[in-house]
Specification:
- By secondary structure, the chain is of the alpha/beta class.
- The chain is built from 25 helices and 22 strands.
- The strands form 6 sheets. The chain has a 6-stranded parallel sheet with strand order 12-11-13-14-16-15, sandwiched between helices. Strands 1-4-5-9-8 form a 5-stranded parallel sheet, sandwiched between helices.
- The protein starts with a helix and ends with a helix.
- Bound molecules: thiamine diphosphate (TPP) and magnesium ion.
- The site of thiamine diphosphate (TPP) has 19 residues, from helix 6 and strand 6.
């Protein structure tokens, strides 16, 4: 109440109502050591109702959770000092409006977009089961953590939670417990405005164990429900808790006003009076409360971690290789020699689709990289992401240690589950058609905010899809992915660029990547005649230069359009014009190069420039300038064979040549005028 009032913004009601639930959970159940909030086998608490962030910040403060830095060191500082609670929602406070992973130690995932937290919890729970399958040995239960997520009506209404819940039950994730704050209130008022389904019935139908606690203040009932969760096998648990938002506030309890506005000084005073609390004290933390947390979660958690550490010491002696792997996982280090079998592809004018070369490279890496796991939203035969080497294994409720995840037709949940897997430090990939990246975009964006190295493989990257038509032909997707800060988008131009792209991807620890691949075959370039594919690492490179090194015009392209530009370069030569072809698979990698390098690729004195990309032209002016030409899509595509589409939308050698010559003429004209 005090933090929200002081900030004059925020959400007081749900933290108040859910305090007893959080109290029992943290004090009596959560296996979490405040001294080491990143202990690998800790239970996770996820506040899916992210707007109720002051609840989490208060818990972190009261339990004296310690801060961890980027190098995973604890420095003895509190994750949430009281001053930061006083500065709730202010710049640099450890208590931002919604919980942010990495910014505040003890926050397990960034939440706020409703539904994301619960869906992400499925990924963390799946990772727990996967880790157990791979690393537990008789007498060595190294991984057996539980995942709790606190959700509100909003999380239940969002579709993503339904997708995730369905898969969680299908996989029998018994280490997962969602607590649903059934307060019947959202922003607009009572949930009866828009929500009348039988949530319990729905979850029973998914295959969850559903329990009901009729009073959020009844600690015995809560305790009993949580105990029953701990005993439940082979299915996840939902505990529906009936509560009163802003419990104890004399006029605001049970109102939507308590959801997202400060209660007001008078109401706060009256509420404190009802609680038997000193009514004028603000941010009061009686020392007994801190002692109580120390005696509860502090003692229990400390003991649990100490026991685990001892167990780990013994485990390291008996299973040194497995122990080393778990440490590498925790530090996001790939295994040694993960890249030893990456193939080099021989030149081939017919070539192969980049989805195919990527499938080969991915398999070559995954074979040597045990915790690289992932799958597709029912499209792996098309995205070529299935791991096919011996014993790769399909993840199912009977085999939670497999490598191939079948997400089902659930792109929304796939995105969040990938985040969950990555939060548990597994190396996760997911795949689908580029067109459906929109469906998972909310989670992808969170991966970027959280700096999680999630790997997205998006295939069928353009009108190259052909006959499926405009509903399946991405147009605006490349520019819109490039617009997400922190996301690295890579669209390789041939099989060897694909191999290099994967090298770049696996080395990443903090960046999500979207690898953009074709459905149709593209030539494998003869690297004895053009620059090596290692240039991809720098984002853009001179693939094939003007014969005299002095280009009249620059041709910039990505993916399938690069070989088109090489053909155009040849045609231009015959017409007496010298072109430089620049492969620019990743804007983001290129932007990170120093200015000198960028100048060697894109010399500022060459103003005649043409970009060619099978996507909306949006953004290419940054490289070709306002006077340059951009060959790209101005409309949606159409349903037709690829050749006809390339003709219709101007992706032909003739079109590139003509645009290039016009550019050269234009620049000459300006020079003459100068
Ligand atoms: C995806 C998404 N849509 C909309 C919002 C805006 N929003 C924040 S809280 C909220 C209502 C949530 O109601 P509920 O989950 O019942 O929380 P309570 O009011 O009970 O705390 C909405 C619509 C959001 N945060 N995320
Ligand atoms: Mg609600």
């Amino acid at each position: 109440m005090d933090a929200v009032q002081q900030a004059n913004s925020g959400h007081p009601g749900t933290p108040m109502a859910m305090a007893p639930v959080a109290y029992v959970l943290w004090q009596e159940f959560l296996r979490f050591d405040p001294e080491d909030p990143i202990w690998p086998n800790r239970d996770r608490f996820i506040l899916s109702a992210g707007h109720a962030s002051t609840l989490l910040y208060s818990l972190l403060h009261l339990a004296r959770v310690k801060a961890v830095n980027r190098k995973y060191e604890t420095l003895g500082e509190l994750a949430v000092p009281l001053d930061d609670l006083k500065n709730f929602r202010q710049l640099e406070s450890k208590c931002p409006g919604h919980p942010e992973y990495r910014w505040t130690s003890g926050v397990e995932t960034t939440t706020g977009p409703l539904g994301q937290g619960v869906a992400t919890s499925v990924g963390i729970a799946l990772a727990g089961k996967w880790l157990a399958e791979r690393y537990n040995r008789p007498d060595f239960p190294m991984f057996d953590y539980d995942v709790y997520a606190l959700a509100g009506d909003g999380c239940m209404m969002e579709g993503i939670s339904g997708e995730a819940a369905s898969l969680a039950a299908h996989l029998g994730l018994s280490n997962l417990c969602w607590i649903y704050d059934n307060n019947h209130i959202t922003i607009e008022g009572n949930t009866s405005l828009a929500f009348s389904e039988d949530v319990a019935g729905r979850f029973l139908a998914y295959g969850w164990n559903v329990q009901r606690v009729s009073n959020a203040n009844d600690l015995d009932l809560l305790r009993e429900a949580l105990q029953r969760f701990k005993k439940t096998v082979a299915r996840p648990s939902l505990i529906i808790v009936d509560s009163h938002i802003a419990y104890g506030a004399p006029t605001k309890q049970d109102t939507s006003a308590a959801h997202g506005e400060p209660l007001g000084e008078n109401e706060i005073r009256a509420t404190k009076r009802r609680y038997g609390w000193p009514e004028d004290a603000k941010f009061l933390v009686p020392p007994e409360v801190v002692d109580d947390f120390k005696a509860g979660i502090g003692k229990r958690g400390g003991q649990l971690r100490a026991d685990w550490m001892n167990l780990f010491t013994a485990y390291s002696k008996q299973y040194p290789e497995l122990a080393a792997e778990t440490l590498a996982i925790q530090h996001r280090e790939p295994p040694k020699d993960w890249d030893a079998e990456i193939p080099t592809f021989p030149p081939d004018p017919k070539g192969l689709a980049s989805r195919d070369s990527s499938g080969k490279v991915l398999n070559a890496i995954a074979k040597r990289h045990p915790w690289l796991i992932g799958g597709s939203a029912d499209l792996s035969p098309s995205t070529k992401t299935r791991l096919t080497f011996e014993n790769a294994g399909e993840i199912s409720r009977e085999n939670l240690g497999g490598r191939n995840i079948h997400f089902g037709v659930r792109e929304h949940a796939m995105g969040a589950i990938l985040n969950g897997l990555a939060l548990a430090k597994l190396r996760a990939f997911g795949s689908g058609f580029l067109i459906f990246s929109d469906y998972g975009r909310g989670s992808l964006r969170l991966a970027a905010i959280m700096e999680l190295p999630v790997i997205y493989i998006f295939t069928h990257d353009s009108i190259g899809v052909g006959e499926d038509g405009p509903t399946h032909q991405p147009v605006e997707h490349l520019p819109s992915l490039r617009a997400i800060p922190g996301l690295t988008v890579i669209r390789p131009c041939d099989a060897n660029e694909v191999a290099e792209a994967w090298r770049v991807i696996i080395e990443k620890k903090y960046d999500p990547v979207a690898l953009i691949l074709t459905r149709q075959a593209i030539p494998t370039l003869d690297r004895s005649r053009v620059a090596p594919a290692s240039g991809l690492r720098r984002g853009a490179y001179v693939l094939s230069d003007a014969t005299n090194g002095k280009p009249d015009v620059l041709l910039l392209a990505t993916g399938s359009e690069v070989s088109l530009c090489l053909d155009a370069q040849e045609a231009l030569r015959q017409k007496g014009a010298q072109a430089r072809v620049i492969s620019i698979p990743s804007w983001e990698l290129f932007e990170r190069q120093d200015e000198d390098y960028r100048e060697t690729v894109l010399p500022s004195d060459v103003e005649a420039r043409v970009s060619v990309e099978n996507a909306a032209r949006f953004g290419w002016e940054r490289y070709v300038g306002l006077k340059g030409d951009r060959i790209g899509m101005r409309t949606f595509g159409a349903s037709a064979p690829l050749k006809a589409l390339q003709q219709k939308f101007g992706f032909t050698v003739d079109a590139v040549v003509s645009a290039a010559l016009t550019q050269v003429e234009k620049v000459k004209g300006t020079l003459r005028q100068r």
